[in-house]
Amino acid sequence: MTTIAITMGCPAGIGPEIIIRYYADRKDPDTIPSVVIGDIGILRKCIDELHLNLQCVNWEPGSPVPDGVVPVLQHSSLDPQKLIWGQPDIHTARAMAGYIESAVNLVQEGTIQGIVTCPISKDALQKAGYAFPGHTEMLASLTGSAKYAMMLAGNRLKVTLVTIHCSLKEVPGLLSTEAIYELISTTHSALTVDFGIKKPRIAVAGLNPHGGENRLFGTEEDQCIAPAVHLAQENGIDAAGPFPPDTVFFQAASGKYDVVVCMYHDQGLIPFKLLHFNDGVNVTLGLPIVRTSVDHGTAYDIAGKGIASHESLAEAVKLAAIISTNRAHASKTIL
Q1: Edge-to-edge strand list for the sheet holding 149-153
Q2: In Å, how far are 110, 120, 240 from 37, measured between CA atoms?
Q3: Which of 15, 91, 110, 307 has the most CB atoms within 10 Å of its CB?
Q4: pLDDT tens, position by position, 32-71
Q5: In the chain, what is the greatest distance between 2 CA atoms, to the nearest angstrom?
Q6: Average of pLDDT values for 18-26?
Q7: CB-CB neighbours of 179 under 10 Å
Q8: Which region holds residue 125: left if phi is over 0, alpha if psi is between -120 and 50, else beta?
Q9: DSSP H helical segments within 166-301, as ranges?
Q10: What b/e readout covers 199-219, taking b as 16+ CB neighbours within 10 angstroms?
Q11: Do 103 and 7 form a contact (C-beta atoms < 8 A)?
Q12: What pTM did the predictor assign?
């Protein structure tokens, strides 16, 4: 049976609220068995403030979850009276990091089959002593993964990113034929196994306006992007490009391609969030474990106001279950 763990994220952010709203809104609680790794006291505080008819109980592996119940693996015991929504501190930072570590351990020991992460504060994470720029890098370290990638997935558009958390001026120097080819290959494998797409069609975006316009606006397309595409094609991958960034996303969203490989963070996330602001899912590719995430941050500015949407969380749970099932099927097929 597939069981998905939902990490609570930063206790002072909107993670507790979207989790509570997710369980309150579930139409069939037994469809995707899940457990929250977090803090019962904070979740109960959230339930009370939202005036919802839910109860939190300690999780028992394998036990069915009846309607109106939030199963919780207690990992922290913060004081609900002292917690102030939107104001993280060292205690909430350490707690959110611990949820992630606990979830990874559960997957590695086979107790659960996938992780869905609620948002964390990157700044708070580092202040708590964790030298990672974000969730993705922390999970890669915990699982010993050298090659990994970020995908943003929706039903109309999927994007992967060659560079992620860096300044724009650093991007050209970080691009190489090897890095781009590795992402194309990782993306192809994920679409084939995790998403069950037999023959993925991959579009690769250029870096510069008009794809460089024959080197008039830049040379990266000729120097490293096109060679990576050709290498992918030589290895049997249906990849095409580099395409001008101002047209390729429309083509993909219209159904011509299954994914767009992007050169930097905002190149992919701006068009993606335009289409999937509420229901987008962040997927970490290349890990030995299944990990999806909500596609938004801690939203400290609205934490505790009762207006956060749980739509992305619901989609992330669904996708984690699908990927877990697809991987299990692929594994049996290979055997």
Answers
A1: 55-58, 69-74, 34-38, 4-7, 114-117, 291-294, 281-285, 149-153, 158-161, 259-262, 202-205, 239-243
A2: 16, 14, 41
A3: 15
A4: 889 999 999 999 999 999 999 999 999 988 777 777 899 9
A5: 63
A6: 93
A7: 15
A8: alpha
A9: 171-174, 177-193, 220, 226-234, 245-253, 265-276
A10: ebbbbbbbbbeebbeeeeebe
A11: yes
A12: 0.91
CA proximity to 285, closest of 166, 168, 145:
145
244: its two tokens: 């001008």
The pLDDT tens digits of the residues spanning 6-20 come to 999 999 999 999 999
Determine contact, residues 55/24, Cβ cutoff 8 Å. no
- 3-class DSSP state of 240: strand
What's the rounded Cα separation, in Å, for the pair 33 and 253? 32
The residue type of 179 is A
End-to-end CA distance of the chain: 20
Both tokens of residue 55?
């109860």
> Partners of 114 in the beta sheet?
4
- Would you mind telling me the total number of residues written for the chain in this entry? 335
